[in-house]
Amino acid sequence: MSIYLRVRKPDGYCPTSKRALRALPAASTGKTIQGKGYFPLQYTREQQMIMKQTQHVPVMMDEVLTYLQPTAGGIYIDGTLGGGGHTRAILERSSPDGRVLGIDTDCQAIARVREQLADYVEQGRLLLAHGNFADMHRFAEEAQLPFVQGILLDLGFSSHQMDSPERGFSFNAEGPLDMRLNREQSITAADLVNTASEEELADIFWRYGEERRSRQVARRIVRERAKQALTTTAQLARLVAAEVHAKPGAIHPATRVFQALRIAVNQELERLTEALPHMLDLLSAGKAEGPAPRMVIISFHSLEDRIVKDFMRREATDCICPPRMPVCVCGHKARLRIVTSRPVVPGEQEVSANPRARSAKLRAAEVIIQS
Question: Which residues are annotated as a binding site for S-adenosyl-L-methionine?
Fold first, then answer.
């Protein structure tokens, strides 16, 4: 397979007008973790090395490798590149010739990974694409991938994004109300907060954040923005905290509102819903021999998990006719076999070491290759 390359640009450049793909490296070899349902209670030396190299803690890394089952010669897609920790681990497990197509909407994430893996660029084992994972089928076609053996989606946010006040994702530090994953898009969280109607805001907070006091928060926002535009994370966090009185030990009162705004700004649920059928189609076109192609998805809140669960259940069922239908008329055939009967969650040790992993849920399914 020929590797698709663009003319090299200066460090920090991120392809915009054309979805450029750039060959990047892999790393050293590693051993596949064996056994079902058991994972180390502490970070291995390999994990520690990856975290040191990427400055990012990959969530449920051992579980990802166990369920994705990367092997030598396999081709994989990491639809949420982030800090590059999962990608590096997949490349190590698929050594010496496995490849990964890494996708991210964040130019900064791509630039960081390109710099961290610059020593391996000549190997051509990692392709990077700037864009949304909902377009992975287009990136795979452009990269001329002959097949895809596994796809990973980690729907969380990297430490770089959460710990950068200027990105506006966190209420723990003063920053602009931005929340855009792709900073080239025009709509920011500040735009929504300052222009959406009270009814629209309440709907966003309830639908995407499941905030019980959505109407009251929306009403207060509209009242306060009439006095002064809301432009910073601290402003919004204080406003929400004054309306939502959290119990001691509970999550920050602004957590659900910030989640809702982030989801709305980036159209996260719509993109996930759009991506899942493309994932299935890519994996279904895989090789007939070898292990069954797999999809592994890590979600961080019930809205994402529900979409993933419903999709997997639907595609693991032969007939999807209404229950009262006497005979099947839909003609639907199962295309997936669910690997995780219930969502896999991180162990206590990982949550203790990385509190951001506490709400992670992993689901996996393998494709039924039609003969």
Answer: 84-86, 104, 133, 154, 161
